[in-house]
Automatic annotation (TrEMBL):
Lineage start: Bacteria, Pseudomonadati, Pseudomonadota, Gammaproteobacteria, Lysobacterales
Biased composition (Basic and acidic residues): 13-22
Domain of life: Bacteria
Residue intervals of the Succinylglutamate desuccinylase/Aspartoacylase catalytic domain: 69-154
Organism of derivation: Marinicella sediminis
Polar residues composition-biased segments: 1-12
The UniProt record lists the keyword Zinc: yes
Name of protein: M14 family metallopeptidase
Length: 362
């Protein structure tokens, strides 16, 4: 089997660390044996941010991004099935981007010294780190190539329906999302995400395929990719329009860093705020006011959440209130991506809040 170094010589660059030039000659094939391995072994074959151009019958490519978060393996599992199905010739070309294969090695979202890859893409406030530089180069390259569509594949750490996220309500975006799921969310933050960067030049979607590695998520993702590489156009997709529901993400719920937290039933020492067990069952359900998210250690403990809208305004008081030691929803709202992972809560957020919207009348 080919080592990363052998593959690097294939693409004409001189050394593995020569990342800034790797896209001048994007490799046209995957290293031998790579389709036999799990995400934890990919680091033996490719580096972080390796882009591969797999030629197909239709030249205009589908762009697929996997493993931006190293513990979200459904993208690789589904891509393996797709590529094994089309060993001779793909119906459509694919640019496949490997994300954080180093973090995938230890089944972690990211390594301690790494930024979140999916916050480093060109956006409103561009980050100034090596990852962001690489993301800028990949974006510039793909903007010239103008893919047919862009798909970024993720998993959730909490229980969620499989859903698609889009940054634009233009028809090709909604059609692309509809091919994956009837549950579609529209969002314009966080800044620096892949589908947001690519939305400037092609229909792009972030798909969330449930918990990492589950069979139904892999199957749904594989079917979606199969459909996409056979599809001639995203301008009209028969039979999908009537079911779809678009939800608009309007805010992010974070836990204040100074508030110590734990999950009900898991805490072994006193904390300021205990998050209700099974809170993630609320994902994508309309919650009534009074629905409890958790309990404080004391009535005088501060509100543990900060809710911010898309432009960063603090709107916590509109959506949460303390009732004694109970922290409750203040007005009806639909949460998404509630996670029960303390690490994910600290690194990212507890959840997002959404309202329904009509895609035809945004
Ligand atoms: Zn992710």
């Amino acid at each position: 089997m080919a080592s990363p170094r052998q593959m690097t010589s294939l693409n004409g660059t001189e050394k593995d660390s020569d990342k800034t030039h790797f896209m001048n000659d994007v490799p046209k094939q995957l290293p031998e044996g790579i389709l036999d391995v799990d995400a934890t072994e990919l680091h033996r074959f490719v580096d972080n941010h390796t882009l591969v151009h797999l030629k197909g019958q239709i030249e205009r490519p589908l762009f697929v991004s996997i493993l931006q978060h190293g513990d979200e393996t459904t993208g690789w599992d589904a891509m393996k099935l797709l590529l094994l199905n089309h060993q001779n010739k793909l119906p459509r070309s694919i640019y496949l981007l490997f994300g954080n294969v180093q973090a995938a090695r230890i089944n972690s979202r990211q390594l301690d010294d790494q930024p979140d890859f999916n916050r480093c893409w060109p956006g409103i406030h561009n980050q100034q780190n090596e990852v962001a530089k690489t993301m800028q180069e990949i974006t510039d390259l793909m903007a010239r190539i103008k893919p047919f569509a862009s798909v970024d594949i993720h998993n959730n750490s909490g229980r969620n329906p499989h859903y698609a996220g889009i940054n634009s309500l233009q028809t090709p975006f909604v059609n692309l999302a509809s091919l994956f799921s009837d549950t579609i969310i529209h969002f314009t933050s966080p800044d620096g995400i892949q589908s947001g960067a690519f939305a400037r030049f092609c229909p792009s979607v972030t798909i969330e395929c449930g918990m990492s590695g589950t069979a139904d998520g892999i199957e749904q993702t594989h079917t979606f990719l199969e459909n996409l590489i056979h599809l001639p156009s995203l301008k009209s997709v028969p039979g999908v329009a009537e079911h779809r529901q678009v939800l608009n993400i309007f805010s992010t719920v974070k836990v204040k860093p100074e508030v110590s937290i734990g999950i009900q039933g898991e805490v072994t020492h006193p904390v300021n705020f205990i998050i209700n067990d099974d809170l993630d069952y609320h994902n994508f359900h309309l919650l009534e006011s009074g629905t409890e998210f958790g309990r404080l250690d004391h009535e005088d403990t501060i509100m543990p959440f900060v809710v911010t809208d898309q432009i960063g305004h603090d709107i916590t008081d509109h959506y949460f209130e303390k009732r004694g030691t109970s922290v409750c929803i203040k007005q009806p709202v639909i949460p998404a991506m509630i996670t029960q992972s303390i690490r994910a809560i600290r690194l990212d957020c507890l959840c997002y809040l959404m309202h329904p919207m009509n895609p035809n009348h945004p």
